[in-house]
Design brief:
The complex is a heterodimer.
Chain A lengths: L1 H7 L5 H21 L7 H43 E2 L3 H7 L8 H12 L4 H10 L11 H27 L2 H8 L4 H30 L2 H5 L5 H11 L3 H27 L16 E2 L2 H30 L9 H34 L3 H10 L7 H21 L11 H26 L2 H9 L4 H12 L1 H17 L2 H6 L7 H10 L3 H26 L4
Parallel strand pairs in A: 1-2
Helix pairs in contact in A: 2-14, 2-15, 2-16, 2-17, 3-4, 3-7, 3-9, 3-11, 5-7, 5-13, 7-9, 7-20, 8-9, 9-12, 9-17, 11-12, 13-23, 14-17, 14-20, 14-23, 17-20, 20-23, 22-23
Chain B lengths: L1 H14 L9 H32 L7 H9 L6 E6 L3 H15 L2 E6 L2 H11 L7 E4 L2 H9 L3 E2 L4 H6 L12 E13 L23 E2 L6 H14 L1 H14 L8 H9 L5 E5 H10 L5 E4 L7 E10 L5 H11 L2 H9 L4 E2 L8 H4 L14 H14 L4
Parallel strand pairs in B: 1-2, 1-3, 6-7
Antiparallel strand pairs in B: 3-9, 4-9, 5-7, 5-8, 5-9, 5-10
The chains are: A mainly alpha, B alpha/beta.
Chain lengths: 539, 385
């Protein structure tokens, strides 16, 4: 018996143990989801299969394709322009183009709808001028949803791709040119392929976020798999059916992740770091310079300025609320959570990335993949999956004579849940930058007597600045926007801006919800600005 | 501050001295540091939350120190915990008045009803919550059917709330009425043209009807009422005839239905009255009016509450429930959102009264949780998005 046990439990080294601990909460939450497969709600499932799922699945596929394409196009294009080319206002756009990320996707959706729907200011103006706006495309359409989600999500790809182009510097271009390629050709043949893991990583984040989105698609009444999950749970009162649909979603994500892994596994990406300095940037021709400016401005105006103006328009009559103590307590609540989560999750992601690199085994790779899956599960489902074991533990503690629930409603539980949800967001930018650090650098460091943990602090982290900055901004802003986990695990009386937006908008009070929405944008602006200035080289 | 930090570091390395391996030492430091970080953050949390509890519920009395102590004493008898899917800005003024009048303090968590029900189930006997408030008879019935409530057993409530707005088994009671009725353009429609909800499927409304999405529970409970009145087949025919009359795709909320009518996209729609009230408050000369389909009976749903089976303060919870149907509470509870009180002797807000009297459908709300999922499926079959 003794022998058998020994052989069953693999001998884990420290890093493997760490990775297992990182993956454990996600596994617990996902088990709760997958366990539903064994208790099928046949009646409801057959209804869903017949009347609901066919549309929902094709809608989901089309949405993912549309949003993935559009965000990649916007993200990569803008990243290339701001990282490698020189044009007027470039320094401003570098950080300004990140800002739409601070607008929660459902807020983006309702402000875009508020602008472009039949009764919105744009169409009203058009009717004033031309008498009719019948030719104006309906905003409640596939195009509308794709636009709203793409505007809210392209900054993920933008930041990741920019990080790649920035650290490639001009070297890749020069390499191409030395082989006789034009700049255009070297972009397609050299720079872009080298940046591929970053771009794909960004797109993967976008896809996961799109799959789990509920709010934005609800504004457009566009049914996706996630809408079906909510319908099964909240309208048909069947959590098992909801979890079954969620596991379909999960399978979808796992397949995409595996495909991405597979396509990458044959290649090895590493390159030394060289920042593109101002004088190394490509000088565009006059026409192209203005085209670049026009493109960046258009995106900035459509994805940030207009939605914000719409919000401001709504919020203007209620601006006096800003002066109330309660409003500030929402802001403080949001910032507190976002800051703690930012440090904690980025730290954990760094350790995870380092662990996976140090312990280059299949076990480690799988553990890492699992611990990043939480991002694709709709927030509410994940919140319940995580809450179950915590409630159990609390009950167990209560049985031991500990009065009251001591785990629930503490920030520890919130942070645990956030880590499960946002590990992917922090991990993806770090992982790719870690790829950049060649084995020869490790070897050199080792030969100088630097190894183990010191390798991380003395060699890797300084080389990862861009990735760390990206990870921190992404986590900070994502936690600010996060809703279901915050709702479910927050201490009594603790409110955040996102909670406030939810409460007001769920009552249809968009005008009042606009104010906290603007506050989220403004608060999200600060770290974006600071971190970019600090870490992103000579901008 | 720096000295403190140094001390902390020294303490840390002492703690980690049991780790002999050089390789693991920094990791040990890291783990403990992050532990401290989390612990510190945890200590700060009541400080963030406390002033708010003080301001919102207890008035100016809440000194930080006492609050933190009280926070830990979850079983103190003068404190109730309410889970609510009715939003904070609608319940907090009511709770404040309750605390002022009774001295019983209330802490609350808001979330979607389905999530709260799941949460209560997961917490089991250990739940800190005493009362669940939701804004739909369906979810109240669901909670009752899952055995989450205990009977209220209150003659006071039985007296003041009509039986069809309460649970047959006394597990929950309605607290305010949300009436869903017909709204029409005063410019293009005469009230004589209107009669019942079903009649909106008639030919004369071809391309003139606006509806909100079927995902909203208000439409689900409306169709559930139709099923109860007409049977499933007839109800489905009604819904299908509505869909055929739609001028634009179903909207995401009631306000948009009215905006569409105002903009001339359609002429009639179905909305909850308080959305009309909000629009009317903003622009009193609205070219819209409400029509009460009294012939079939106006559809009402309730915001309501029940006492949880595992409540540790059932007596205080009952005090709260009975207080909520009292006159001042009813006026406030319904008034903050321009809803109708459940107790008929309570004065209705003057603006709400100006919309006229109506005859409620007396369909028992106890059955809503069985009928509503059927209504959802029916609307799926009819292609009502």
């Amino acid at each position: 018996m003794h022998l058998r046990l020994n052989s069953l439990i693999p001998r884990l080294n420290f890093w493997q143990l760490f990775l297992m601990m990182m993956a454990a909460p996600t596994i617990l939450a996902l088990l709760a989801v997958i366990s539903a497969l064994f208790q099928p709600d046949k009646d409801i499932m057959s209804h869903l299969v017949k009347y609901v799922l066919p549309t929902a699945i094709s809608n989901t596929l089309w949405l993912v394709i549309g949003v993935a394409l559009m965000t990649t196009l916007l993200g990569v294009g803008l990243a290339w322009l701001t990282a490698v080319c020189e044009f007027p206002l470039r320094g401003f756009f570098v950080w300004a183009l990140i800002l739409p990320m601070a607008i929660p996707s459902y807020v983006m959706a309702f402000s875009l709808v508020g602008l472009f729907e039949y009764t919105g200011p744009v169409q009203v103006l058009l009717r004033d001028w031309f008498g009719s706006s019948a030719w104006f495309p309906s905003v409640y359409s596939y195009g509308g949803v794709v636009m709203a989600l793409s505007f809210a999500l392209y900054p993920y790809t933008y930041m990741m791709a920019r990080n790649a182009f920035q650290t490639q510097g001009r070297r890749s271009l020069e390499a191409g040119q030395s082989l006789g390629l034009s700049i255009k050709k070297s972009f397609w043949r050299v720079s872009l392929p080298i940046a591929r893991p970053w771009i794909v990583g960004g797109t993967l984040l976008v896809i996961m976020e799109t799959l789990s989105d509920f709010g934005a698609v609800a504004v457009f009444n566009y049914d996706t798999l996630t809408s079906v999950i909510y319908k099964s749970w909240f309208d048909l009162y069947s959590l098992p059916a909801a979890l079954q649909v969620a596991s379909v979603l999960l399978v979808f994500v796992v397949v995409i992740t595996l495909l991405e892994r597979h396509s990458r596994s044959t290649k090895r990406f590493s390159q030394s770091r060289s920042i593109a300095l101002a004088d190394q940037r490509i000088r565009l021709s006059v026409a192209n310079r203005w085209l670049a400016l026009l493109f960046c401005s258009l995106v900035f105006i459509a994805a940030f300025l207009l939605p914000c103006l719409r919000l401001l328009w709504w919020a203007a009559p209620h601006l006096d609320l800003v002066m109330t103590g309660r409003f500030w307590s929402y802001i403080v609540g949001s910032i507190t959570l976002a800051l703690i989560a930012m440090l904690l999750i980025t730290g954990l992601a760094l350790l995870t990335a380092f662990a996976a690199r140090t312990d280059n085994t299949r076990f480690a790779a799988i553990a890492v993949r699992i611990s990043t899956l939480g991002y694709a599960v709709p927030g509410t489902v994940l919140a319940v999956g995580l809450f179950a074991p915590i409630a159990l533990m609390d009950q167990w503690l209560a049985g031991m004579g500990v009065t009251a629930s001591i785990l629930q409603g503490t920030i520890v539980v919130m942070m645990l849940a956030y880590s499960v949800r946002f590990m992917a967001v922090a991990f993806t930018p770090l992982e790719n930058n870690l790829l950049r650090i060649t084995p020869s650098i490790d070897a050199a460091a080792k030969s100088l007597g630097v190894s183990g943990f010191n390798m991380l602090t003395k060699v890797h982290i300084p080389m990862l600045k861009g990735g760390v900055a990206t990870a921190m901004i992404l986590v900070f802003v994502d936690v600010m926007k996060e809703l279901p986990i915050t709702l479910m695990t927050r201490p009594f009386g603790f409110n955040t801006l996102a909670v406030r937006i939810f409460e007001l908008s769920s009552e249809g009070l968009w005008e009042l919800a606009a104010l906290p929405a603007l506050a989220i944008v403004l608060v999200g602006l600060v770290p974006a600005f600071m971190l970019i200035k600090r870490f992103d080289g000579n901008d | 501050m720096i000295r403190l930090f140094n001390k902390l570091l020294k303490g840390l390395s002492l703690t980690c001295s049991f780790v002999t391996s050089v390789r693991l030492k920094p990791a040990c430091l890291m783990i403990i540091t992050s532990g401290i970080l989390v612990a510190c953050a945890d200590q700060q949390e009541p400080l963030v939350a406390t002033p708010k509890i003080g301001v919102q519920i207890a008035g100016e009395t809440g000194a930080k120190a006492t609050k933190i102590i009280e926070n830990n004493a979850a079983f103190a008898t003068d404190r109730l915990v309410v889970y609510s899917s009715r939003n904070e800005h609608l319940i907090s003024p009511v709770f404040k008045l309750f605390t002022d009048q009774t001295g019983i303090e209330i802490e609350y968590a808001t979330d979607k009803a389905g999530v709260l029900i799941e949460r209560i189930k997961m917490e089991g006997a250990n739940t800190p919550a005493d009362v669940l408030i939701t804004v739909d008879a369906g979810t109240l019935g669901l909670a009752a059917s899952q055995g989450l409530f205990q009977p209220i057993n209150s003659p006071v409530i039985n007296n003041r709330v009509p039986a069809y707005l309460r649970d047959d088994n006394d597990f929950w009671t309605g607290l305010s009425l949300r009436a869903r009725t017909i709204v029409y353009s005063t410019e293009r429609v005469k009230s004589e043209e209107l009669s019942t909800y079903s009649a909106l499927g008639g030919d004369q409304w071809q391309g003139r009807l606006c509806l909100r999405t079927s995902k909203k529970v208000y439409n689900q409970s409306l169709v559930a009422m139709l099923i109860a009145e007409q049977g499933e087949a007839q109800a489905q025919a009604t819904v299908t005839s509505w869909i055929n009359n739609l001028a634009i795709a179903p909207t995401s909320n009631d306000t948009k239905v009215m905006q569409a009518i105002l903009a001339g996209q359609c002429d009639v729609g179905i909305v909850n009255t308080y959305y009309f009230g909000r629009l009317q408050t903003k622009s009193p000369d609205l070219a819209l009016a409400l029509f009460w389909p009294n012939k079939s009976g106006v559809h009402v749903n309730v915001a309501g509450a029940g006492i949880l089976k595992h409540s540790k303060n059932a007596i205080q919870a009952k005090t709260l429930m009975e207080w909520l149907v009292s006159e001042p509470a009813q006026e406030l509870f319904a008034g903050v959102n321009q809803e109708y009180p459940v107790s008929t002797d309570v004065k209705v807000d003057p603006q709400v009264a100006s919309w006229g009297q109506f005859r409620q459908s007396e369909q028992r709300l106890s059955q809503a949780y069985i009928l509503q999922p059927n209504a959802v499926k029916l609307m799926d079959r009819a292609g009502y998005k």
